[in-house]
Design goal:
The complex is a heterotrimer of chains A (about 260), B (about 475) and C (about 425). With about 260 residues, chain A is α/β, with parallel strands linked by helices. Chain A is built from eight helices and twelve strands. Helices cover about 20% and strands about 35% of the residues of chain C. The mean pLDDT of chain C is about 95. Classes of the chains: A alpha/beta (about 260), B alpha/beta (about 475), C alpha/beta (about 425).
């Protein structure tokens, strides 16, 4: 579904990703862990098509599309969703209006019929119920005045509504208390299916107690330096990221 | 009756400590202004012909200009024929060692010792007394670094090429009414030249003193910072206490070439007049900096506590790409003082940045106006401005006014202006007093806090002086 | 004065029927106003209050003498419910107006009718003189206006139906100067929603000079919405003078969406204690539009408040000029004044000039203003696109959100919806 090959990315002239490879198949959950500044958020932003990232080499295939050629909204319509680490506050734009516009724009792109207000509200209510979110959220402006937890909850709600093929969760667990964390995990687990994949970017192992990954990758210095199953996350938690550095030392000294 | 008068005078003297007169034999040009007067003035200063011609050209232009309309100032007509355009101590010293002891004593009293033993550490001073410079300290040390710091009169004689290249290149002769007048009759001032790559080894400072009666002071300052050089320049001003208004119409020009930085600080404490608005200096100043080179930076910091009327807008023309202009200002008006001050930031180059922090304090019947222009030209892609204008009101009869003009012609520019007006709240005062502070101390503490953003831009010695000045100027403002 | 505009108006004045000009015993006042306008001419570049708006082009144009009748498709008015009073090219149009079924205590009639009836007290506001040399359009209005709206709500009456004033510009063979003078009076504790429309029935290049007096007595509340949606060829000079008594509450919303050149002066005098004004507006300058709004809020009495929120959009070759003046007079202690002016500059050839001004002569006040000029937030734009919205839609959405706060102030749901619709129809043209 997603195939990243030898991805090199520069930000403000500085190379952040230095030949990253990653393949994600439908139904899989991949966790990407790594120390601060390793390039985790850069990966999420590049995949979603944010400006300001210069791709100097590499390819990213998403289904049968060359992802890097698509506009952000085309990527969304193709089924890629990024849950932002810092969801943006947009005062004055009503949440319901925004979601309906987004969903219908995506449906239109895919040649599906647009939902009318009644159909849309029915869908929204259903999703809210599943996620145990109050519908008060719908009447507010997008993320404006939301607490950190509410913003993340809103991201998961958007994900549930837009039903992407590939969801990237960028440090969605940061700043959440345990209840909010469980809610986020529940939302993700509820959506796991054979044709949907997840990339969970996180600094801590904690989230992976609730969202059990198929594969864990360690991103350091712009590359995936270690991959394994869920036990890798536990080892990381136990030994810290310095452990990875040590394991890589021989490689470095050989150069 | 007589004792009462004395009490008042004592009180006033306490408030304006620089109000004394130095009794020194002075040479004047008779009051009045004409081409002859300008020729005499130029001759007295042994100026070359080009300078005389420059002055005459300015004078002829001035004659054609209308007297400016005063937007927010109440001001009587100025009789330009009643002013003497040249006053200088008769004895002309060859060096600081020959300076009349009375003059040295004057500067001692003002806290600016000039003689060798007591020179201010790390600050080179050019002392301007009425129309002439009486001496410049640390000349040798500066010369070793390649820095030229001398009076404008000397520069015209000794560094004619530089003066001719830059004088009037930032503030053209006909820029405005008072700039034209200054160009015609300027007496002295400072000239600073920092060569390429030099970081000026010490703060440079000019101390302006008006002493003689019925004279105007028209100084002219020119600072040129070549590529990648740096200079910090300070200016201080005082005048005796008199019942007549005296005119001060200065022009300051700054030129910053590529990567150069000029920091220009002013503590202006001209005699403000008495409580009833009698006397005081009319302070009409044109100050402009030209960020001519890429990545250059000009920073104006001013603390304006003196003068009956202040009219000045230190400005930056941001011509070089990525250049930066800054303006930090505290203006205080008490009693009948009026201040109309602010800045202009003209963004021409790409990615130019400007920042304006203006703090106005009005007490008594003082009128304080901020007037500013932020202009982003079509060429100034990525220009960025932030302006903050705050006013503090102390008393019922004062006024605080804000007149910003914002003109933007580039869609990738961001301009932000914020202004607030408030008074010292009773809650704040009560809180301070309940902790044991006297009312005036509480006020000066709150005012100091209000001005902090600006004071921190001043060199240390000046910051202390500025703070003290505010305290003194605000005496009697509360209650 | 080489002013063709003024010459053409002077000729027009001579051709007006003397009876009409004398009505209400106003002949002398009209002549004096015309004389003053001719003597001082149009304000030039040196006039501070016209610093950013040049009248050079207008000055050279001539406008034909008599208001011409024109036929108007009533469909133009379909969205504006009764009661409504309609003027076409400055002439009262009874067949388009609906003045019946007004609640008791609400009187609505054309000024021309009142002038004919000859009750001097009814029309005495017309005798006001204008002293400042740059008040040319007010003077011309005083000289020429023969029609307009007279709307009075008696003390204690709450008028629940919004009352609409519609000024239509319609093609009528040539360019016409139209002068209308309106007066809205609310008695003590009266309430009214008043909608004012300046619209085009067909393309034309008329000059509309509209001047409204608004008087709110103690405790009255006026909700006022004005939409300027004139033809791109038209010139619109609007002045609104409001006087507020104690505890009066004036809320207004102004949308400037049309005309080639539009200038609006909103003068509000907070005359009684605890009077308050909340005014908001959008200036949408696309095409070659030049939109100038000038606020002059005068706090006279103590404990008065103003809350001003203006949004400007500069697109294409459009120009937005905004002046937000707040004057707090000595003695107006306890005043709270607040102004926010934000602007989006959306194209390389647009220009935005803004000047928020505070003049304060009292010390027990809280006053603040802020002005910004910038662009749409890139991060927000990306966020919306990452959710699947095309860039043009995302831009429109953000631009709409940017203006949203202005419409939030409209209390009447029906009026808000209609006004919203008018703005919405214009935004995609500007933002995308």
């Amino acid at each position: 579904m997603l195939k990243i090959e030898n991805l090199h990315v520069r930000v403000a002239g500085k190379e952040i990703l230095k030949g990253l490879n990653l393949t994600v198949k439908p139904g899989e959950v991949h966790a990407i862990m790594g120390p601060n500044g390793a390039g985790k958020s850069t990966l999420g932003n590049v995949l979603a098509g944010r400006e300001g990232y210069e791709i100097t080499a590499g390819t990213v295939d998403f289904g049968d599309k060359d992802l890097l050629q698509l506009e952000p909204e085309e990527r969304a319509a193709e089924g890629l969703f990024l849950a932002f680490q810092y969801p943006v506050e947009i005062p004055g734009v009503n949440n319901t209006y925004f979601l309906k516009a987004a969903l219908n724009a995506q449906r239109k792109y895919r040649g599906e019929s647009e939902l009318d207000s009644m159909q849309f509200l029915k869908l929204v209510r259903e999703k809210l119920r599943v996620l145990h979110i109050s519908d008060e959220l719908l009447h507010r402006a997008v993320n404006a005045g939301f607490s950190g937890g509410e913003k993340k909850r809103n991201e998961i709600f958007q994900m549930a509504l837009l039903e992407p093929r590939l969801a990237i969760l960028d440090e969605t667990d940061s700043g959440l208390d345990i209840d909010a964390l469980k809610m986020v995990a529940e939302g993700v687990n509820h959506m796991r299916s054979a044709d949907r994949a997840f990339i969970v970017i996180t600094h801590y192992q904690r989230l992976l107690d609730y969202i059990v990954p198929d594969q864990v990758h360690v991103l350091a210095e712009g590359r995936i330096v270690e991959s394994g199953d869920k036990t890798l996350a536990l080892k990381l938690e136990e030994h810290g990221y310095a452990w990875i550095e040590q394991r890589r030392l021989p490689e470095h000294s050989a150069v | 009756m007589a004792t009462e008068r004395n009490d008042i005078e004592n009180a006033l003297n306490r408030r304006y400590e620089a109000g004394f007169v130095t009794d020194i034999e002075t040479e004047y040009l008779p009051p009045g202004l004409s081409e002859d007067v300008i020729r005499q003035l130029s001759a007295k200063k042994n100026e070359p012909q080009w300078m005389t011609d420059w002055r005459l050209k300015a004078y002829r232009h001035w004659l054609t200009m209308p007297v400016p309309e005063w937007a927010k100032l109440r001001i009587g007509p100025i009789d330009f024929q009643a002013i003497s355009y040249y006053a200088a101590p008769k004895a002309r010293p060859k060096s600081l060692d020959d300076v009349d002891p009375k003059l040295l004593e004057t500067y001692d009293k003002l806290g600016v010792p000039l003689h060798e033993r007591a020179k201010l550490a790390g600050v080179a001073v050019d002392a301007v007394f009425d129309s002439v410079s009486v001496g410049t300290t640390f000349r040798k040390e500066l010369a070793e670094a390649g820095v030229i710091f001398c009076s404008m009169s000397e520069a015209i004689r000794e560094h004619a090429e530089l003066v001719q290249q830059y004088l009037g290149s930032v503030v053209p002769v006909g820029d405005n009414y008072f700039a034209a007048l200054n160009s015609a009759v300027f007496s002295d001032g400072s000239f600073v030249f920092i060569p390429k790559g030099v970081r000026c080894p010490m703060e440079l400072s000019t101390y302006f003193r008006i002493n003689a009666m019925n004279t105007g002071q028209f100084e002219r300052t020119l600072i040129v910072a070549e590529d990648a050089s740096y200079v910090s320049y300070l200016e201080g001003c005082t005048a005796p206490q008199r019942d007549e208004n005296q005119l001060h119409a200065a022009v300051v020009e700054l030129v910053a070439l590529a990567d150069a930085q000029i920091k220009y600080s002013t503590v202006q404490n001209w005699y403000p007049g008495d409580e009833n608005g009698v006397g005081g200096i009319y302070n009409f100043v044109t100050k402009r900096g030209d960020c001519r080179g890429a990545r250059s930076k000009i920073s104006w910091t001013q603390v304006e506590t003196g003068s009956a009327i202040t009219w000045k807008y230190p400005s930056c023309v941001l011509r070089g790409d990525d250049s930066t202009g800054e303006f930090y200002s505290v203006a205080l008006t008490h009693h009948a003082q009026q201040a109309d001050t602010g800045t202009k930031m003209i963004h021409i180059g790409r990615n130019t940045k400007s920042k304006i922090i203006s703090k106005g304090i009005s007490a008594g019947r003082g009128q304080n106006s901020y007037r500013g222009l932020v202009k982003v030209e079509k060429s100034a892609e990525g220009a960025r401005n932030y302006t903050q204008c705050d006013s503090l009101l102390i008393g019922k009869k004062c006024g605080a006014h804000t007149f910003p003009y914002i003109e933007v012609k580039h869609p990738r520019a961001i301009v932000e202006h914020e202004a607030t007006t408030s008074k010292i709240s009773d809650d704040q005062l009560f809180y301070c007093r309940s902790r044991g502070l006297g009312e005036e101390d509480a006020v000066s503490m709150i005012v100091d806090g209000f001005c902090k953003q600006v004071f921190k831009e001043l060199p240390m010695e000046f910051a202390v002086e500025a703070k003290k000045l505010l305290e003194v100027s605000l005496e009697g403002a509360v209650g | 004065m080489s002013a063709t505009l003024l010459q053409s108006l002077e000729q027009a004045y001579a051709q007006l029927p003397p009876a009409a000009m004398q009505a209400g015993r106003l002949g002398e006042a009209r002549r004096a106003s015309l004389a003053a306008a001719l003597a001082d001419g149009l304000p030039g570049a040196r006039a501070e209050r016209w610093r950013h708006t040049s009248l050079r082009a207008l000055e050279r144009r001539a406008f034909s003498p008599l208001p011409a009748t024109a036929t108007v498709d009533p469909a133009v008015l379909a969205a504006i419910p009764a009661p409504r009073i309609v003027f076409v090219n400055g002439v009262f149009a009874p067949q388009l107006s609906q003045l019946k079924d007004l609640p008791e205590g609400v009187s609505l009639q054309p000024l021309s009718q009142a002038l004919q009836q000859g009750d001097v007290r009814e029309v005495e506001f017309l005798a006001r003189r204008f002293d400042a040399a740059d008040e040319t359009f007010a003077r011309l209005n005083a000289a020429f206006a023969l029609d307009g709206l007279l709307l009075r709500v008696a003390a204690g009456v709450h008028c629940t139906q919004p009352v609409a004033l519609v000024m239509l510009g319609a093609a009528a063979g040539g360019d016409h100067a139209v002068h209308l003078r309106h007066c809205v009076e609310l008695g003590e504790d009266a309430r009214l929603t008043f909608c004012e429309y300046q619209l085009a029935a067909s393309p034309q290049a008329h000059l509309l000079n509209s001047f409204a007096h608004l008087h709110l007595r103690r405790g009255a509340r006026l909700d006022h919405v004005r939409v300027q949606g004139e033809d791109a060829g038209a010139t619109v000079m609007t002045r609104s003078d409001a006087v507020l008594g104690s505890e009066a509450d004036y809320r207004r919303t102004d949308l400037e969406l049309g005309a080639g050149l539009s200038r609006h002066e909103l003068n509000v005098s907070l005359f009684g204690q605890h009077a308050r004004v909340a005014a908001a507006g959008v200036l949408l300058a696309d095409g070659r539009r030049h939109l100038d709004t000038r606020l002059n809020i005068d706090h006279v009495a103590r404990d008065t408040a103003c809350d001003l929120t203006w949004r400007g959009l500069g697109a294409d070759r459009g120009r937005v000029v905004f002046h937000g003046g707040i004057l707090i007079r000595a003695g107006a202690d306890g005043t709270a004044a607040q102004l926010s002016n934000k602007n989006l500059l959306l194209s390389a050839n647009a220009e935005i000039d803004t000047q928020p001004v505070l003049e304060i002569h009292a010390d027990e006040v809280q006053a603040a203003h802020g002005a910004t000029v910038g662009q749409l937030d890139d991060t927000a734009l990306f966020y919306l696109r990452s959710r699947g919205l095309p860039e043009s839609v995302a831009r429109t959405l953000l631009t709409r959100a940017f203006c949203r706060v202005v419409l939030d102030g409209i209390a009447d749901a029906g009026v808000r919806e209609r006004t919203d619709g008018l703005l919405d129809a214009r935004l995609p043209q500007v933002a995308a």
